Structure formats: C-alpha cells, structure tokens
Amino acid sequence: MHKWTRIIRLMVLALLSLTLAGCSDQEKQATELRIGLIAPITGPLSKVGQSSVEAAELAVKEINNAGVLSTLEGAVRVVLLIEDSQDQPAMAVSAALTLINRDRVNAIVGPQVSRNAIPAARVAERAQIPLISPGSTHPDTTREKAWVFRVAFIDTFQGKVMARFAHEELNLQKVALLFDITSEYNQGLAEVFKATFEELGGEVVAFEPYTRDMPDVSEQLARISLSESQALFLPNYHNEVPDQVRQARAAGLQTQLLGTDSWAQIPTVYRRIVEGAYFSTHYTSTSTDPMTLGFIARYRQAYDRTPDDIAALTYDAFGLLVQAVQNQASIDPGSIRDGLAKNDNYQGVTGNLIYRGSGDPVKSAVVMQVRDGQFLFHSRIEPAKSAD
C-alpha cells in the first residue's frame, strides 16, 4: 500500500510540475509582443529589405533595452519575426499567412511597396491583425480597411505635390511621363500627376506606359523626344530609373528629370546619372529635428551607414505600435488596432503623423534635389499646400 501511495504522489507531483511549466509558458507568451516584418530581403528590391530589417532590429533592441513597454499583466518583451516577400505579391501573401497562422503575431509591419502591400493588407484585414506598411503609398493599401495603416503619405498627395512643384516652382508647361503600367504604385502616381498638372493649366505631351518585363523603353523615349516636353516624370522604382535615364539621354533627351519617393533608394554610385533631378520623399538625413538626429546617429553607430527613408519609415512603424500598446495597456490585436486608430499626433523621425479616422496619416512631404551626386534638401511641402 505504501508503495502505491508513493507512486501516486510522484505522479501527482509530475503532473503538477507539468501544469506549472505550462502556466509559466503561457505567462511568458502573454508578455510577448510578437511583431512580424515582411520585407523584400531577396529579389530586385533587396536594398529596401536591408533597410527595413536593420531599422526593425534597431527599434526592437531599443524597446527591449529600455524596458518601458508594459500592460496590465506586466512587462512586455518585443519579439521580431521576419519573412521574405522576395518582392513578389504571392510571396507577400504567403509571408502574411505564415506570420498570422504559424507565428501568431500580434501585428505586422510591411510590406514596403504597394504591389506587395495591397494583397498582404487584404490577408491582415480578413484575419483582423493590425498591419502597418512603412512605405506603400497607393490608396488601395488602406482603402475600406479597418485594420491596415501606413506611415508614408499617399500617392494622391505625392502626385499633386510633384505636379504643383513642376508647374509653380519650376514654371514648366509641358511634361512627359514614362511609367510601369503593371504596377499600382507607378500607374497611380502617373495618373494623379497628369490630372493635377492639367488642372493647373499645364500640358502632358506624352503619357507612355511600359511593363516591367520589357526594360527596353527606346520606342517610348523616341516618341517622348518628339513631344517637345520640358521635363520627364518617372514615377518608377529605384532599380529601374538609372537605366531609363541612360536610355533617355542616349535618345537625346536633356530635359529636367522629376521623380518620386522610390528614388530615395537609388544607390550612391548611380546618383550622378540623375544629376539635377527633383523628387519627393518622406524624410531627409540633413534634418535638424533632435528626434531625427538621434535616430540617424544610433543607426549609423549600429550599421555604419546613413539611414534612408525606408529605414526611417520602418522605425516609425515600430514606434506607432509601441505607442498603441502603451496607450491601450494591451497587446491584444484588437486593442492595438484601436490604439493606432485613435492616434491623433505621433512625433516620428519622418515628421508628425496625424490619423483622422483612417489608416492614412496627414503629414508633410520633402522635395530633394540631386547635386554633385548627392541628395540635398530643397523644400518641405505641407499637406494644406497640396490640397485642391
């Protein structure tokens, strides 16, 4: 009898031990803020992916080291889970599904570009997991979605900014456009620019589409060269622009070049190709804002290079999530979503972000000029100045 009593006691202790271990694991899980990052680590936009990953890892390290994030249940530790979109919409969807279904994330940061962010956002919306895209500017990313947000300004704002800048600042009357018709980002910007420039009294003398799988745009440029345009607007991705400008110069086009926020990713070795160009973007590393300067210094110390706009936007995305968790005192996805939606003024490294009942922030744009192969600050455009 004594033998069986001892065995039963050991079994009870073993079961109790397992139960306590299970409780401990659950408690640990409850104090983890699991954030998924979707970035193009491989593929043609790997530079974008590198900036996103570096900024995300820096943000997470700083948050955890500070130890200031907590909920009603206690201290919170941020766990970063990274998935590669390969700059392919299907892979972006797969990455979102993996983070949601396998990794059980509380929130997602990314994708960065619109052609990947739009389909991934649909997945997050259906799953009711908050998603913040650092760099997607196409309106469809957040349109009619309650769980999707962005850090970047939208294309309707950016397109108007550059159209007004071309017409009012540069006094241009005739402009040509070359854009990728298969990409929501490129086509959307082209259409907004065209409509705004014409409303202002300017003339779009050439509106030339191309497709990503056909990098030779000599036929389009030949037609543009006959159009008597004063400028060429290229709302295309940074990995395509240098070659397009080379082809344009070879075709005899020496007109003013205009671009968009993707140009901020053009590598230093290619910047002299777009000498003299103006483009809109989200932030400048020459800012005098103390918060921005602090971020730049910490990023340089960590990675020995200056953060680009994607790095700054990604860093702000993590800041927004942290603020939402702090304000709601909860890591529940629904609470995080509510915290993001209620955000009426976030002081970020890319400027002040104000959300007024949508996932799109009200924020300023920066116009940069390329001089001596460097991106130099030209002017800041506030939202009110680009309004209709």
TrEMBL record:
Signal peptide: 1-21
Annotated InterPro entries: BCAA_transport, Leu-bd, Peripla_BP_I
Keyword terms of this UniProt record: Signal
PROSITE patterns: PROKAR_LIPOPROTEIN
Source organism superkingdom: Bacteria
Domain Leucine-binding protein: 33-373
Gene3D superfamilies the record matches: 3.40.50.2300
Family of the protein in this entry: Belongs to the leucine-binding protein family.
Descriptive protein name: Ethanolamine utilization protein EutJ
Species this chain originates from: Amphritea balenae
